Amino acid sequence: MTPASSFVTHLESAIEPGVLLPHHVPQTLHAGRPLWVRYDLTAVASAMRKDSLLARAPTMWRYRELLPVEDDANIVTLGEGMSPLLDCPALARRFGLEHLSIKDESQLPTGSFKSRGLSVAVSRAKELGLTRLAIPTAGNAGGALAAYCARAGLEAFVFMPEDTPEVNRCEAALFGAKVFLVNGLIDDCAAIVRAGVERMGWFDMSTLKEPYRIEGKKTMGLELAEQMDWSLPDAILYPTGGGTGLIGMWKAFAELEAIGWLERGAGKPRMYSCQSSGCAPIARAFAAGERHASRFENAATIASGLRVPAAVGDFMILDAVRESGGEARAADESGLVELMSEACRLTGISICPETAVCLGVLKQLVAEGKVRPEERIVIFNTGAAQKYIEVMRNVEVPRIDRNEEIDWARLR
Ligand SMILES: *Cc1c(COP(=O)(O)O)cnc(C)c1O
Q1: How far apart are CA 244 and CA 242, in angstroms?
Q2: Got the DSSP string for 59-77?
């Protein structure tokens, strides 16, 4: 059974709880800060049963009642979701752990978890009659917006730093977006989008500046719970840029709790927000005990998805992390390439540099006894390694000349 309309009741200001806004019209921020999408969870609980999921397609739209689209006809999908939760025993041993799993988002459309958020955001944009969508991006969000706009027949305008990984530039252009390279960082791109909203008739699809991307990201948490038979791990490590992934998952766990779907006594995980020492505004604010993060100057990291010097949802990330008993931490930038290749070798999974950041943080947590060997740990692999040609290019591959006698000793 799918509902004819959504169970959304309203939107609520995240910075001023109790301030409600209607969801039938396009919304952006309130008081300069993001909005939560709220549902009639009592109605969801009676409309949706665990066993009704069994007959549904293996995409994130199986959680239809917890998603904000009114009319099924407006759903813009490329089959995203139900990424595998893979047990990684060799990697676990390497870190001195017994249970380490990776939820592999590299297998999603456009090769990153960004497709979840943009599937929902573009669906809602279409439903609300928006036609020209603009986005500032550190890379993967631009490719995903371009793909979902291509699918929906909408226009996409993508603004990215000029040193964004080449594949991100190419994919966005390939899907027909108008792509622009900016000599600055993602917040410089965001300023251009903001300035063009009135003048160019764009709708601003920036992270957290429209309310629906979180709802798509939330499905990572719903899937994880379903894949773990409605329990949750002891700790989750998640790479943090703008923060939608971590915020969305924490919202998912609260909603599952509210509809009574988590097994009795199943605690919620400690959430670890992971950044690189090259761009660590959230980790820095956490260490200082602050609720808002100041801009991180001269941000530079090969984990390009995390190159977000200032996040409009900083307090939402920090609130979730603190409420969960977790931490926001930075891994050393200089160790990322080695961690990424080691993790690829030990798992066969296409691990991105952002996930290497989580491994760097995991190493610290284990060394400090903050993660214990018998705990169940889940790391999200948010994107595919092959999108980072610039990082992978360092690998030395010997050539063979077919006209010369083979030197077999070199092939050992
Ligand atoms: C965008 C991105 C992130 C950061 O995600 P947020 O939800 O914005 O914090 C992490 N990894 C990859 C590969 C990304 O593209």
Answers
A1: 6
A2: SGGGGGGGS--S-GGG---
Compute, in angstroms, the gap from residue 306 CA to the centroid of ligand 1. 6
Do residues 313 and 259 make contact, with C-beta atoms less than 8 angstroms apart?
no
Runs of H (alpha helix) within 288-406:
314-324, 336-347, 353-367, 389-392
Whether 90 and 347 have beta carbons less than 8 Å apart is answered as: yes
Residue at token pair 């998603």: 67
List, for residues 102-159, the tens digit of each pLDDT value.
999 999 999 999 999 999 999 999 999 999 999 999 999 999 999 999 999 999 999 9
**Best of 382, 387, 388 for a ligand 1 pocket test (most atoms within 8 Å of beta carbon):** 382
How many residues are listed for the chain in this entry?
Answer: 412
CATH T-level assignment (fold) for domain 85-109+214-392: Rossmann fold (3.40.50)
The domain limits of the chain are: 85-109+214-392
Q: Which two tokens stand for residue 20?
A: 């409600």
364 to 100, 256, 281, 332, 346: CA distances (angstroms): 15, 31, 18, 10, 19
Q: Whose Cα sits closest to atom 4 in ligand 1?
A: 241
pLDDT band per the 50, 70, 90 thresholds, residue 4:
low
Q: Within 13 Å, how many C-alpha atoms sit on residue 356's CB side?
A: 29
Interval between CA 321 and ligand 1 midpoint (Å): 16
From the alpha carbon of 138, which atom of ligand 1 is closest?
1
Instruction: Report the atom number in ligand 1 closest to the C-alpha of 105.
Output: 13
- Mutation choice for ligand 1 from 102, 103, 106, 113, CB with most ligand atoms inside 8 A: 113
Q: Give the ligand 1 atom nearest the CA of 244.
A: 7
Q: Which amino acid is at 350?
A: S
The pLDDT tens digits of the residues spanning 277-290 come to: 999 999 999 999 99
Q: Are 198 and 142 in contact (CB under 8 A)?
A: no
How far is C-alpha 193 from the geometric centre of its chain's CA atoms? 21
Q: What gap in Å lies between CA 375 and CA 334, rounded to an integer?
A: 28
Q: Is the pLDDT of residue 204 over 90?
A: yes
Residue 1's pLDDT is what? Answer: 44
Nearest ligand 1 atom to alpha carbon 247: 7
Distance 407 CA to ligand 1 centre (A): 45
